[in-house]
Design goal:
Helices cover 46% and strands 19% of the residues. The chain is α/β, with parallel strands linked by helices. The model has no long low-confidence stretch (mean pLDDT 94).
């Protein structure tokens, strides 16, 4: 029996999964945060060692029994980081071939039917990556949110919402039910107190408040609906950039939607779909809640040059998902 290792290295935790060639889970493990931008490469190494050691122990396997490995790495954004990434991974003592990608690509591997297409992440933040059918070319955005004019995750949505509430207060825009909703959410006395508290940072209103915008929009507030249209268009623009990079405009492919923002449904997804279809009419938007570490295990199989037909890929994903 051959075994494959998948690692999802995240900003808050690191997950490891060992699967056999039939897609059965042999072992799992977990470590701490591994994004080198926050914990450094030493922290990344600790998270890798802890999660892999736990998974091997859980599976009653040794490292030399791993036939291939896949690593999805949060914060792996630039080719200049590749050497340090590989040096860190190599200290695991892995003897098998491996591949490493930005962690967004894991969602594409786990969610797309054939492991290629475009993945859009919208949770606390946002990101977008894609790869072609041959797994040879990748497309991407910077992944740096509002710093580079990319949106919209929950953080960007709330920042824009508070600007709109401010516009309403100064009468640049009509009144909106968002004001009352956020006054109540923050525990503010009134709209003036809300804006003062938000700008003075004694009312902390962040991405966790994003569901409020959806609730007010669903109740019919036109300004809240416009905000979700704006967010959908921003996410679509990220996807469209990647679509152009990969020359997907005329072909059928999947756009995998990942993250908590998409739980809001069609108020966000429909404007996103319309803008993507204006560029790539054959794109199919699909939501996934598959664990990214499943994509990492599939990447490990790719690294070992396992021939994965669509039927085989579907079977393995279904088995791992259980």
């Amino acid at each position: 029996m051959k075994y494959y290792l998948g690692i999802d290295i995240g900003a808050t935790k690191t997950a490891a999964l060992i699967a056999d060639e039939n897609g059965n889970v042999a072992g799992t493990g977990q470590g701490g945060p591994g994004n080198h931008e926050t914990v450094g490469y030493d922290g990344m190494e600790r998270a890798l060692c802890d999660s892999v050691k736990a998974a091997l122990s859980n599976a009653n396997l040794s490292m030399d029994q791993i036939a291939g490995a896949g690593f999805g790495i949060a914060g792996y954004d630039w080719t200049s980081e590749e050497r340090d990434m590989r040096d860190t991974i190599d200290r695991l003592g892995l003897q098998a071939p491996y591949k490493m990608v930005n962690d967004v690509v894991l969602g594409l591997l786990a969610g797309a039917s054939e492991g290629w297409g475009v993945a859009v992440v919208s949770g606390t933040g946002c990101n977008c990556r894609g790869r072609d059918r041959e797994f040879k070319r990748e497309g991407r955005v910077t992944g740096y949110g509002t710093t580079m004019g990319e949106g919209a995750g929950g953080s960007e949505l709330i920042a824009r919402t508070m600007q709109i509430i401010g516009y309403s207060w100064t009468k640049r825009l009509p009144p909106t039910a968002l004001a009352d909703a956020f006054i109540k959410h923050a525990g503010a006395k009134d709209l003036e107190d809300l804006i003062h508290g938000y700008t003075a940072h004694y009312y902390e209103i962040g991405a966790h408040a994003a569901p409020l915008v959806f609730q007010v929009a669903e109740a019919g507030d036109p300004i809240a609906r416009d905000l979700l249209t704006w967010a959908g268009h921003e996410l679509a623009e990220m996807a469209n950039g990647v679509i152009r990079q990969l020359n997907f405009e005329e072909i059928e492919f999947e756009v995998v939607l990942i993250g908590s923002m998409f739980k809001g449904g069609e108020l966000l997804i429909n404007p996103m779909r319309e803008k993507i279809h204006s560029l790539a009419p054959k794109a199919k938007l699909i939501r996934t809640e598959a664990k990214p570490v499943i994509g990492a295990a599939l990447l490990g199989m790719e690294a070992a040059e396992v021939n994965l037909s669509q039927e085989r890929r579907d079977q393995i994903k279904a088995t791992l998902a259980k």
